[in-house]
Amino acid sequence: MKKILSLAVSLFLAGQALAETDTIRVANQQLQTRYLKPVSRQYLVYRQRTPGSSKKQLSVWERNVDVKNNQVQISQKWFGADTITRQLFSVCDSKDLRPVYHYVKNFRNEVEAYTFNGRQTIGTDSVSKNLKKDFRNEWKEPAFNWELDMETFALLPLKKDKKFVIPFYHPGSSTGPAYYLYEVAGEEKIRIGNEKLHDCWLLKINYSDENYATFWIDKKEKEVLKMEEFFNGWYRYKIKLPAVDLGSQKKV
C-alpha cells in the first residue's frame, strides 16, 4: 500500500511539474502578440571579467519595432567605436511571430538574406550580393528567429514558477533549430537610470552547470530591460538605455 501511495504521489508531483512547463511552438500561437506595438529602444551592451570591473567591447544596439499589414518588422543597428558594426532587418507574422524574412549586413558590407516558407529556410536570390543565396534547409516544424529573442521573451505568458520550452533557430545555421528551456526564476524591482522602479519577471536559461543568462522583463510594459549572461568566464550585459524626451530639454 505504501509503495502504491508513494507511486501515486510521485505521479501527481510529476504531473504538476509537467503542467507548469509550456512548449511555445509557432503553430500554437501562445505568444501574447496583442502587446506588440511600434517602439524604438536602445541597449548598452558590454562584457566584464567580474561584476564591477572595467567594461570591455562597449556597443549600443538600436532595436526598432513596427507593426503594419499583419506583419512585425524589426530593424536593428549595432554601433561600436563610431561605426555601424551590424545591421539587421527581420519580418514576422504579427499573429504568431512566425519568421518571414531576415537580412543581415556586417561591417565588411557582407550580406546574408533568408526567406522562410513554412518549415523551409532558403537564401533570398532576389537580394543583390547575397552570400547565402544558395542556402536551403528544412526542419520538422517552424521555429522562432533567435535574433529576436528579446522581443519573443516579452510576449511570453509569464507567471511565478512557469517554465517554457522554446524552439529557436539562428538564420543560416545548418545545425538548428533546437528547443531551449527557460524558467521564471523570480521577481525583482529595478531602476533604469533615473526612471521609476520597474516591476520585473526574471527569466533564466542554464546553458550548462556554469553558464547561464537571466533577463529582466517589465511586467507592465512587456519589454526586456536588462540581460546578464555568464559564459566561458565572461559576464555580458544588455541594459536598456533610459528614454530621453528631447522636447522637454531647455534651450541654452
TL;DR?
The chain is mainly beta. The chain contains two helices and 16 strands. It is globular, with a radius of gyration of 20 Å.
Write the topology of this structure.
Layout: H1 2-19, E1 21-23, E2 39-48, E3 56-68, E4 71-80, E5 83-93, E6 99-106, E7 111-117, E8 120-123, E9 136-138, E10 144-145, H2 149-153, E11 163-169, E12 178-191, E13 197-206, E14 212-218, E15 224-231, E16 234-240
Describe the structure.
This protein is mainly beta and 252 residues long. It has a single domain, classed as outer membrane lipoprotein receptor (LolB), chain A. 9% of the residues lie in helices and 49% in strands. It has a 16-stranded mixed β-sheet that branches. The radius of gyration is 20 Å and the shape is globular. It starts with a helix and ends in a 12-residue tail after the last strand.
Tell how many strands the DSSP assignment holds. 16
Task: Look at the helices and sheets and give the structural class.
Answer: mainly beta
CATH topology: outer membrane lipoprotein receptor (LolB), chain A
CATH class value: Mainly Beta
Q: Number of helix segments?
A: 2
Shape: globular
User: What are the low-pLDDT stretches, counting only 5+ consecutive residues below 50?
Assistant: 1-16, 246-252
From the coordinates shown, what is the CATH architecture?
A: Clam
How many domains, as an integer?
A: 1
Rg, alpha carbons: 20 Å
